[in-house]
Amino acid sequence: MIVGWGNWKSYPRPGRGENIEAPIGPGIYEVRYANTGELFDFGAVDNVAQALAGLQVTPRSLASFFGRRAAATFPPLEYRICATATKADARIAAERMIGRRETYLRGAA
């Protein structure tokens, strides 16, 4: 059973003590750039909270690329979740969403 998407929330930035608000259970998550709305990551997982916490957010700073310890600039991200009863439900819902997105993009092109 699929409950529905939650509201968009700001993704926590390192060092600020903010928390991710997500269920410890199966579901779908979507992460996007806050400025542009461009998709950053999407997935159907067993544990939504763990998947969001383990998301690899790479800094946009060249200083971090060269190993300097300058304050890294992380992109402003937003996330939303859709809780499901099982991972199988999450996969089915994710496949439907991907299919709808592809159909929309084909029509818009």
Detail the topology: elements first, then pairings:
Layout: E1 2-5, E2 9-10, E3 27-33, E4 39-45, H1 48-53, H2 62-65, E5 77-84, H3 87-108
Antiparallel strand pairs: 1-5, 2-5, 3-4, 3-5
Q: How would you describe the overall organization of this protein?
A:
This protein has 109 residues and is of the alpha+beta class. It has one domain. The chain has three helices and five strands; from the N terminus they run ββββααβα. The protein has helices at 48-53, 62-65, 87-108; strands spanning 2-5, 9-10, 27-33, 39-45, 77-84. Strands 1, 2, 3, 4 and 5 form a five-stranded antiparallel β-sheet that branches. Strand 3 (27-33) and strand 4 form a beta hairpin. It is globular and about 40 Å long.
How much of the sequence lies in strands comes to: 25-35%
Succession of helices and strands: EEEEHHEH
Q: How many structural domains in the coordinates?
A: 1
Q: Determine the structural class based on helices, strands and strand pairing.
A: alpha+beta
Question: What structural keywords apply?
Answer:
single chain; 109 residues; five-stranded antiparallel β-sheet; 5 strands
